[in-house]
Amino acid sequence: MSSSDIVLKNPGQFIAAVPAMLGFVPERSLVIALLRQEPDRTHEVQLCARLDLPSAADQYSQLPQRIANVCGRSGAIAALAVIVDDRVSRPDGHEPGAADHRPLVDALQQRLAGCDVVLAGAWGVSRIGDAAEWWNISSPGSHGLQPDPSASQVAATRVFDGLALRSSREELADSIAADKAILEQVVASLPAVAAEAQRRLARAIEINNPDAYSRMALWRVMSVITHARDLVDITPNAIAEVAVALRDTAVRDAMFGVAGGAHARAAEELWGVLTRALPNPDRAESSMLLGFSAYLRGDGVLAGIALEQALACDPEHRMAMLLDVGLQTAMPPARLNKLVRAGIEAAADLRVDIGIATTESGMEVLR
Fold it and tell me: pTM of the full predicted structure?
């Protein structure tokens, strides 16, 4: 089952699906879903974007322009908005300012119109959760209760695809934060592993066949990836071996091809393990690959967090910088297929099978 098979019939169902579309439950956020029209004249969510709500309402003016910047490159024809703000509740006629996000919605509507995008609906909630109230921001008399987000079809699809649903963006970030215990063990293993790799490289150069080193390094990484079900028991020495192998540009580039093939999910799991276990600057490489993999499959939230970590480890990491710019400017994941093809070619040059490319980018999700 894919997300395109799911029909959301009312505002409550749409709002309850937002956590699954983002990968976490948003708080104090403006969430925008951009819609494209399908050949059968139905509308499909093309992109889901989330922005933090500023602490003061007089700072909201920047939000519509940021959303418009995304819309201008999306090709969408309509948008749906949800404002999540625990500081407000549905106005009852006696407290007209209790949920006064109407100026923000009006400004957003005007900005989107300039991009030929219709704001088809805008709803307010104090939180997203089972039986929590939603209301139409322009017409608060139209309101209802949300169904259980964890029971939505979109959430079920996410679980079916093996993707976790986090309670917050912070929890998602914590899931790839450095693990000091395993980090210390890997740091202890790295010098010996790097020294052995240097000896293998020297031997390959002596026989005038430097590709032999890269071929063996790539083969070792693919061996770990294809046994991903054992990642829970991966040793610090094996983590160190993968990290050292990724220092070879040819091996690193081949990993872009892996992200478009049969071992994509297993490789992404490995990059998550390495991101938790490696010191700088090796951690920048694994974080970048995690960001690339997430971006390619449309999970911009995880991609953004991973790329933030990559740049924190190495502010000059060129590929992380390029991917981060692409994400910030709403570059479609399909544009990354050039890197996938380049990775497949790099692996082919080394005569190593990394799996058949099967990339099909789905819905984009921006942080």
Answer: 0.76
